[in-house]
Amino acid sequence: MSEIVTLSLLVFAGSLLGTAFMRRVAPRFGWIAQPRKDRWHQKPTALLGGLGFYPFFLLGMLWLLLRWPGLAEVRLFDMFDMTAPARLPVAMILGTMLMFSAGLLDDFRRFSPATKLIFQFVATSIVILAGGVFPLTIFRTVNILVTYFWFIGIMNAVNMLDNMDGLCAGVVLIASLTILMLAGMGVWPEGKIPMIIPVAAIFAASLAGFLIHNWPPAAIFMGDCGSMFVGFVLATLTMPGSLSGRLGIGQFHDAFQSVMTLIIPSAVLAIPIFDTTLVTLTRIWRSQRPSEGGRDHSSHRLVGLGFSEKKAVLVLYSLAALGGVVALMMQRAPNLALPLAGFFVLALVMAGVYLGRVRVEIPDIGQPPPSWTPLVTNLLYKKQAGLVALDGVLALLCFYSAYLLRFGGMLDVQVSDAAIHALPVVVACCLVVNFSSKMYDGQWRLIAVADVPVHAMAAAGGAMASLALVTLLTHFGLGHSRSAYLIFGVLYFLALVASRVSFRVLDSIVARSVQKQDLGGESDG
After folding, report:
1. The pTM is what?
2. Above 60 in pLDDT, residue 364?
3. Other Cβ atoms within 10 Å of 510 Cβ, number
4. Less crowded by CB within 10 Å, the N or C end of the chain?
5. Cα angle at 247 between 62 and 243, to 5 degrees?
6. How far is 122 from 148, CA to CA, in rounded Å?
7. Quick check: helix, strand or coil at residue 295?
8. In this prediction, what percent of the chain has a pLDDT beyond 90?
């Protein structure tokens, strides 16, 4: 362990000095990012920060391959003659070389999105040839397709996240530290340290050295040579397999194994996925290509709300850390994993809807919106189908959580089956009662104190109707619990009210934060 700490410190020092060197060298050679309408920075800034910290990550990985026990017969360019444990680390090194080189060329020549995609497919293919496949299903072909989707999605998400000073490096640093904790909290045979621990430590150290120079106001950007290799490493480390030690997912019951294989890594990478999804959907909505640059990312929308750049970055850091905490909780408490993941995803969706309302700078694309846009807008806002879907999801999550609370977080097979079989009945009953209570007649964000009893009656009515219908259909056999329905009624009422007041609470928090920020700025002046 002491060797890992020493190696990480050396990589950190090298990354720090290497990035400082690039800060000085870049202006002399004209490696400068000039301000553009579709970019956020307002002053010329040094580029190619990846050239300052990638070599030290690479040196750390090469040293690790030569020194790590059990990795005999390492031949960097001959994976098929190596022992199985060495193949995936070597494939990762080869993939980072390819993505770093592609990114470096892109920084100079500006590749098309299709050209970048080819490099990403080739790099992912190297990992797949080495045996790195996302273990999601029993069908290898499906798993290979998921692996391509995962790698290309994460690489592009990280690349798109590099849109504000300190954002990409900081969020990825938090993700790498989360991976380090997930691996460190796992149970390993004979006290052996899995290779994911030193790899994640080296990766985090290289990012930390760069982040010091990239912290707002940034003195240097990582460029595509940095973001493309960083995304590739992050996708590799979050893919459950021999290199990552399956991120501790092996302790899950077989029924949850494949689901958690996807959910835990997704929680670790919540912010890159969230930002990319928000940007992609809003750009498609207005007939803009998702691959184009723009000032419509989540960070830009936070600034549009009144936050300073540093506060916007810190807000996203906090959400990234929250995703890490959720991942750790799911790893340590498998029985609570699905409700935790459900409520976390729901919170991100609500945050996305909230940020989606913020006005941003939109380029003039000279095209009319798609023909389906008015239809979807009418469906979501006038008919409030989105709110109905939200209430259905809340009913599902609250009902399962109620059973977990009733039985102390441990559901045996009989109780679990009873709860799962009752779920569709509960969701249907709750939505019918909500509609009958005229909850969907007004604007859901304008809830008043007088509306609270209506929501209380709807939640109670939904719980009682569900209990009556489940009793009629199942004769309330073994595994069912009347007290769980009582707990469900309380949870559902709280969830309904919380969802209705969420935007007003966020408005209040934003207003107070901006007011403090303005007062702080005035006092400083």
Report:
1. 0.87
2. no
3. 16
4. C
5. 30
6. 10
7. strand
8. 46
Q: How far apart are CA 387 and CA 381, in angstroms?
A: 9
The values of phi and psi at residue 442, to 5°, are -100, -175
Distance CA 429, CA 439 (A): 14
Quick one: DSSP state of residue 306? T
Question: Binning pLDDT at 50, 70 and 90, where does residue 461 land?
Answer: very high
Looking only at the bridges linking them, the beta strands covering 45-46 and 32-33 are: antiparallel
- Contact assessment for residue 87 and residue 30, using Cβ atoms and an 8 Å cutoff: no
Exposure string of 296-320, with b = 16+ CB inside 10 Å and e = fewer, is: bbbbbbbbbbebbbebbbbbbbebb
Instruction: Find out whether 87 and 233 touch, Cβ atoms under 8 Å.
Output: no
Residue 244's closest CA among 187, 203, 176, 183? Answer: 183
User: Which tokens hold the place of 306?
Assistant: 């009144």
Asked whether residue 74 carries a pLDDT value surpassing 70, the answer given is no
pLDDT of residue 251: 52
> How many CA atoms does the CB half-sphere of 393 hold within 13 Å?
18
pLDDT in tens, 310-362: 999 999 999 999 999 999 998 888 778 888 999 999 999 999 888 888 887 66
Say which residue the tokens 């916007």 belong to.
312
Length of the chain: 525
pLDDT tens-digit map of 387-396: 888 899 999 9
Which residue, 87, 159, 77, is CA-closest to 120? 159
CA angle 503, 505, 510 (to 5 degrees): 90
R_g (Cα) of the chain, nearest Å: 25
Nearest Cα to Cα of residue 163 among 292, 283, 51, 265? 292
Question: Which range has the worst mean pLDDT, 305-319, 437-451, 464-478?
Answer: 437-451
The DSSP secondary structure of 481-519, one letter per residue, reads: -HHHHHHHHHHHHHHHHHHHHHHHHHHHHHHHHHHHHHH
Question: d(Cα 9, Cα 201) in Å, to the nearest integer?
Answer: 9
- CB neighbour list of residue 455: distance below 8 Å, 6 or more residues apart: 439, 447, 493, 496, 497, 500
